[in-house]
């Protein structure tokens, strides 16, 4: 259990660094375009596309960071439907269901990225293949699945949902 908790903390730290770096890249691309327009009277080619890809990467990785902090969006209207004695069991079942959903979407995300790679799809403006940027989708779902499975196995390491803790 301690090794799992340590692994998840390290994974969260790594994913946080990736998300912040992606946001930095997005901001830098937009600022570079602004400066190019101001000083050279012409925009920086591809800067908006780079900013969009970087922002999307940050958002997708942010999904994992939100899970790790218990701050992700979730359905909460049934929180008090089960008696207090059964809530730990209900939360555990919820982790198992969330794990299953993430595995399902990870499969389809991998399928999608493989199809994109096999077709050689490229970004129309930058003329670069897009599948490497799409790898954030399977990563997001696989990382989420790993977390939810760990939370199912070891409920005491699961982050408390911020809405419940209040």
TrEMBL record:
Keywords: Cell inner membrane, Cell membrane, Membrane, Transmembrane, Transmembrane helix, Transport. It is a multi-pass membrane protein. It is found in: Cell inner membrane. The keyword Cell cycle does not apply. Residues 28-150 form the Tripartite ATP-independent periplasmic transporters DctQ component domain. The chain crosses the membrane at residues 17-36, 48-68, 89-110, 130-150. Belongs to the TRAP transporter small permease family. Part of the tripartite ATP-independent periplasmic (TRAP) transport system. The complex comprises the extracytoplasmic solute receptor protein and the two transmembrane proteins. This is TRAP transporter small permease protein. It comes from Aquamicrobium zhengzhouense.
């Amino acid at each position: 259990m301690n090794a799992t908790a340590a692994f998840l903390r390290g994974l969260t730290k790594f994913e946080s660094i990736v998300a912040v770096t992606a946001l930095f890249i997005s901001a830098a691309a937009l600022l570079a375009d602004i400066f190019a327009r101001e000083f050279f009277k012409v925009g920086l080619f591809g800067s908006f596309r780079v900013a969009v890809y970087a922002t999307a990467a940050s958002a997708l990785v942010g999904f994992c960071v939100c899970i790790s902090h218990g701050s992700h969006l979730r359905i909460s209207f049934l929180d008090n439907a089960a008696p207090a004695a059964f809530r730990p069991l209900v939360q555990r079942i919820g982790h198992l269901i969330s794990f299953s959903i993430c595995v399902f979407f990870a499969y389809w995300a991998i399928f999608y990225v493989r199809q994109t790679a096999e077709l050689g799809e490229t970004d129309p403006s930058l003329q670069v293949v897009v599948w490497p940027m799409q790898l954030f989708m399977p990563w997001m779902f696989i990382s989420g699945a790993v977390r939810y499975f760990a939370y199912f196995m070891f409920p005491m390491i699961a982050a408390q949902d911020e809405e419940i803790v209040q």
